[in-house]
Amino acid sequence: MTRITCLVPFCRCTLVPSDPKHTEGICQKHWRLMPRAVKARRRQALRRVAKLKRMWDGNRRGQERIESTGRYLKYCAALTRAYQQSYDAWDRCKAAAIEAAGGI
Ligand SMILES: [Zn+2]
After folding, report:
1. What is the dihedral of CA 81, 76, 25, 2, to 10 degrees?
2. How many A from CA of 45 to the centre of ligand 1?
3. What is the pLDDT of residue 104?
4. Banded model confidence at residue 34, pLDDT cuts 50, 70, 90
């Protein structure tokens, strides 16, 4: 298990990423300082991605339903949009954590 350092400048806390592919993270101390709305928005975006993935990944009935109703492209577009929203939400988290740490 590799630990990564908090992305807030001058914070020397380390953390174990929730996913080994993640290369950046926010320590608990700075996570707590972030506005609730920013965290909620990220959680909402992640839930949406998970929900859309459940509709397809390893779900034969879901795949058949999406394909038989001709919604495959719509589904792909929705998944892409959900991923983009989760990336944007993470960017907002980073900005909010750094702002909160600086007291701006
Ligand atoms: Zn930190």
Report:
1. -170
2. 23
3. 57
4. very high
